[in-house]
Amino acid sequence: QVHLVESGGGLVQAGGSLSLSCSASGTIFRIISMGWYRQAPGKQRELVATINAGGGINYADSVKDRFIISRDNGMNTVYLQMNGLKAEDTSVYYCNGYIYSSHVSWGEYWGQGTQVTVSS
Hints:
Layout: E1 2-7, E2 10-13, E3 18-26, E4 30-39, E5 46-52, E6 57-59, E7 67-71, E8 77-82, E9 91-100, E10 106-110, E11 114-119
Parallel strand pairs: 2-11
Antiparallel strand pairs: 1-3, 3-8, 4-5, 4-9, 5-6, 7-8, 9-10, 9-11
């Protein structure tokens, strides 16, 4: 089984920064992509940013130029550097991974979420 675990959430004032980390562990054959989603109370989960094995990156328009997604060389850990945080960024942030657990089996995996709260 593949496990994703996030860390780094917390409380920050508007305009501040936080850095989130997500580590993948377990039976991993290959990671195709990893990324971050967020879900605020009463809202649907939305994409924040993704990064694939080739280094291709996608950002939601709402976070582009403020957030930076990155990975380690093996892509077992993905990071989200959040700058210029706004109150509307307050959400539970979830790590997501599209991962092969063998050469013939893949799945989409989710972390447990980490709370980010932006105060003003």
